[in-house]
Each structure stands twice: as C-alpha cells, then as structure tokens.
Amino acid sequence: MAETQPRREFLAPGMVMIAQGGNTGQLCVLRDGTVEVSRDGQHIATIHTPGAVFGEMSVLLNLPQTATVTAVTEVDYFVIDNAIEVLRTHNEWLLQIARLLAQRVNTTTALLTAKADAEAIILPDDVFRGWGDPAV
Questions:
Q1: SS3 per-residue string spanning 16-76
Q2: How far apart are CA 17 and CA 54, in angstroms?
Q3: pTM here?
Q4: In this predicted model, what pLDDT tens digit does every residue of 79-117 receive, in sequence order?
Q5: 7-116: CATH, from 1.10.20.10, 3.90.950.20, 3.30.470.20, 2.60.120.10
Q6: Is the Cα torsion angle 78, 84, 87, 93 positive or negative in sign?
C-alpha cells in the first residue's frame, strides 16, 4: 500500500517548489505562505490560499509540470509522494482533486465563452462511442 502521510516541507523566499518540465509524481498542498506560478518565465498567478494544490495535472496525466511554483514568502506546505498510488487508495482525496479540477474547468469555460461569444465546447464523437452510446 502506498505511503499516505504527507510530509511537511518549508521553503525560503525564492526557492522553487515545482519546476516546469519536471515530473516528480508528487502533489504539493500549500499550508501557509505565498507562491508565484509562472510558465515560460511569464507570471501566471500569485497564490496564498491554504489548501491550494500544485502538481495535480502532471500526476493525473503523467506529463511534465506545466509551470514553475516559486516561494514569494516563507512557505509551509505538504508533499504527497507517489501521488497517483495514494489517490488510487484514497477516494476522498481523489474526489477533492476532481472537485478542484472541475472548478478550474468551470472558470476556464466561463472565460472562454465570454471571449468567444458563447461558442459551445463540444466533446468529440469518439468519447460517446467509448461510453457505448448506440445513437452515435
């Protein structure tokens, strides 16, 4: 069974929590402090909300990290090693990640539809065929 106890880590200002392009298999959860998220050297966001999760897209998609997360202040956070195995064995954690991603999709969809005059976001037909829908 995968190790389920997150370990606590600390960063000084300027230290990197997650490096773009890395693939650690870890999830990080902010406990206290402020971090900056950047992609290709461009500022994306400043986050200081306890409970903010970082690394979930890389873990779930098994892809390299899409952004760098750097401490702006002293940062106290939890690291969940071997996160995919932990999520497989802890449905309540997986549900929280799913909710987080759904919130992000909801926000992104609202932004996209506002910019694109409410164009529909449509799933490809092969998605429905995979569900066994005989109508498609």
A1: EEECCCCCCCCEEEEEECCEEEEECCEEEEEECCCCCEECHHHHHHCCCCCCEEEECCCEE
A2: 9
A3: 0.76
A4: 999 999 999 999 998 898 889 888 888 888 887 777 655
A5: 2.60.120.10
A6: positive
